[in-house]
């Protein structure tokens, strides 16, 4: 059986790309397709253990500036031609990969939604476009219509959380099945001896709201380590006082060394699922998080972490203050994270695929 993987784009290696690694390990795809591939070779090999070509589109010529052409993404995903002898197509979609066209009636297209798709034309246009949002609104309305139509193309949809499942039903009027993404728990080990610092991990992009974390810790003057890279790296670093350390991107084992010793993991963005908080809990590190999105499904308030209700500096400050009055059971937190293992993901997704291939 010939199998194809379709992704939105390949640039940096993060949580969504770890899911791609698991999918590749499970299905050993014969072909892979992407709008753009600008990923470093060593990161690409984390997904595809053996070198194999990733078929891209004309957008490849834009290089790292491809996001400026977001209004063409739907067009170019439709131009990708899957080999006709392919039986199974799995699209990993957080933007437009779901819109791939089948080239044969006998093909099964399963789309794994890594997030609310193309959320900067739906829910978060103000955050991404800022003061220019009113100028692009006419374009966004057109893109929403196209995006809705392309969301009808997959035969079946898998959502990575109940939060995303509800969004898919509301926005696309599609039913979907929830299969939580895999977390490589082998790289994250229990540590019961914590040091006096906090940690935050993720891509340094606007919607993750690292700016609020930096502003809060500037006021608290508590030690914070921020792990990750992204478009806001230099801006955030210039905002931060000396009590905040930026490491840039780190490999899993290096991340483990930092988060396993941290007092708590800080998470203030609205995530559709959120792999990094589970990695922290696998180390026995409790999570202090904004109570919204997929985090509600993964963090048990008062048991494996502390949830707060508003995405503000004041709410985060109070949560940290309250957190420091608790006596946390690191072993219990570690055990809770095990339900999100790669083994569970592999079993669930294989069962799902085999059911629909019959």
TrEMBL record:
One Pfam family matching this protein: Glycos_transf_1
An example Gene Ontology molecular-function term: glycosyltransferase activity
Keyword Transferase: yes
Domain of life: Bacteria
Listed InterPro entries: Glyco_trans_1, Glycosyltransferase_grp1
Residue ranges constituting the Glycosyl transferase family domain according to the UniProt record: 192-333
The entry's keywords: Transferase
Keyword Transferase belongs to the record: yes
Protein name: Glycosyltransferase involved in cell wall bisynthesis
Organism: Paenimyroides marinum
């Amino acid at each position: 059986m010939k199998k194809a993987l379709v992704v939105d784009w390949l640039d940096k290696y993060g949580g969504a790309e770890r899911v791609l690694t698991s999918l590749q390990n499970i299905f050993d795809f014969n072909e892979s397709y992407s709008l753009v591939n600008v990923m470093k070779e060593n990161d690409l090999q984390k997904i595809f253990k053996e070198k194999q070509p990733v078929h891209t589109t004309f957008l490849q010529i834009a290089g790292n500036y491809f996001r400026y052409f977001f209004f063409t993404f739907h067009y170019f995903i439709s131009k990708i031609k899957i080999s006709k002898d392919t039986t199974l197509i799995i699209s990993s979609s957080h933007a437009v990969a779901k819109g791939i066209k089948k080239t044969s009636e006998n093909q099964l297209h399963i789309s794994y939604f890594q997030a609310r798709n193309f959320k900067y034309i739906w829910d978060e246009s103000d955050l991404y476009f800022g003061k220019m949002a009113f100028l692009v609104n006419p374009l966004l309305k057109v893109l929403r219509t196209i995006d809705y139509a392309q969301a009808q193309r997959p035969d079946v949809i898998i959502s990575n959380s109940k939060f995303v499942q509800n969004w898919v039903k509301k926005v696309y009027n599609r039913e979907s099945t929830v299969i939580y993404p895999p977390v490589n728990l082998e790289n994250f080990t229990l540590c019961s001896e914590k040091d006096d610092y906090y940690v935050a991990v993720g891509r340094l992009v606007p919607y993750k709201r690292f700016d609020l974390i930096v502003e809060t810790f500037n006021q608290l003057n508590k030690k914070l380590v921020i792990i990750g890279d992204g478009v806001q790296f230099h801006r955030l670093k210039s905002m931060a006082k000396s009590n905040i350390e930026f490491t840039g991107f780190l490999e899993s084992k290096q991340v483990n060394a930092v988060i396993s010793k941290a007092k708590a993991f800080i998470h203030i963005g609205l995530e559709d699922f959120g792999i990094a908080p589970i990695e922290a809990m696998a180390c026995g590190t409790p999570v202090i998080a904004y109570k919204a999105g997929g985090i509600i499904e993964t963090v048990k308030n008062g048991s494996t972490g502390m949830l707060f209700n508003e995405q503000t500096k004041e709410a985060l400050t109070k949560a940290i203050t309250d957190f420091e009055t608790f006596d946390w059971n690191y072993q219990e937190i570690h055990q809770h994270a095990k339900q999100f293992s790669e083994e569970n993901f592999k079993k669930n997704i294989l069962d799902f695929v085999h059911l629909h291939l019959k």
